[in-house]
Design goal:
The protein is mostly helical. 44% of the residues lie in helices and 10% in strands. Helix 2 packs across helix 3.
Length: 192
């Protein structure tokens, strides 16, 4: 469509950043003539159409159960995703998860994308919970770095769909949300 080819390594380095950050980098790297906000809108429209065309969309295994268990155990849930609101809303509605989150912060709501901690600090502010009393579940290197820069504890999920992300700065890594028990979260979270 745009006549550019992004390497797998370049793609993986941008996972977790906002669309604006990603397209600013791609525009510069490939000398694209379109305004960045036009490229962002084009990508977002294309991706929503793609999601709507999928008849077999399923959440990551065990994530719905984990979210429900967290809420039942008194955790206040916030979603801080670099994705745009349209994409977040589509996914939450598709999998009936909207009612679990007290706060939703999107890449549309911040100036700086991950690895900058702004998105997590904004979620912390909106929940009224100080950063040192928050924990983050992340699946990208940029997200883990943002969480740790925000002074939050971080559980990293090795998402097989995101390539070999470097998650070494997380407090703990898991391969499946089935492994993420309330006791494990409490151990990682300490005094939270």
């Amino acid at each position: 469509m745009l006549g550019i080819s992004v390497t797998e390594e370049e793609h993986h380095s941008m996972i977790g950043t906002t669309d604006m950050v990603m397209w600013t980098r791609l525009k510069k790297s490939f000398g694209l003539s379109q305004p960045t906000n036009e490229l962002v809108k084009l990508k977002q429209s294309f991706y929503i159409d793609y999601l709507k065309s999928r008849t077999n969309l399923k959440p990551v295994p065990y994530i719905s159960e984990m979210i429900s268990a967290l809420q039942q155990n008194g955790f206040l849930l916030a979603l801080a995703s670099s994705s745009p609101h349209t994409q977040i809303d589509f996914i939450l509605n598709e999998f009936e998860l909207s009612n679990f989150f007290s706060v939703i912060v999107s890449g549309d709501d911040v100036r700086n994308g991950k690895p900058d901690p702004e998105i997590f600090l904004k979620a912390s502010e909106l929940t009224g919970i100080s950063p040192e009393h928050c924990f983050v579940i992340e699946d990208s290197m940029n997200g883990v770095l943002a969480a740790k820069s925000a002074n939050m504890r971080c559980i990293a999920y090795r998402n097989p769909n995101l390539g070999n992300q470097n998650l070494e700065h997380a407090d703990i890594e898991i391969d499946s949300f089935k492994d993420l028990t309330i006791n494990l979260i409490k151990n990682v979270s300490g005094d939270i």
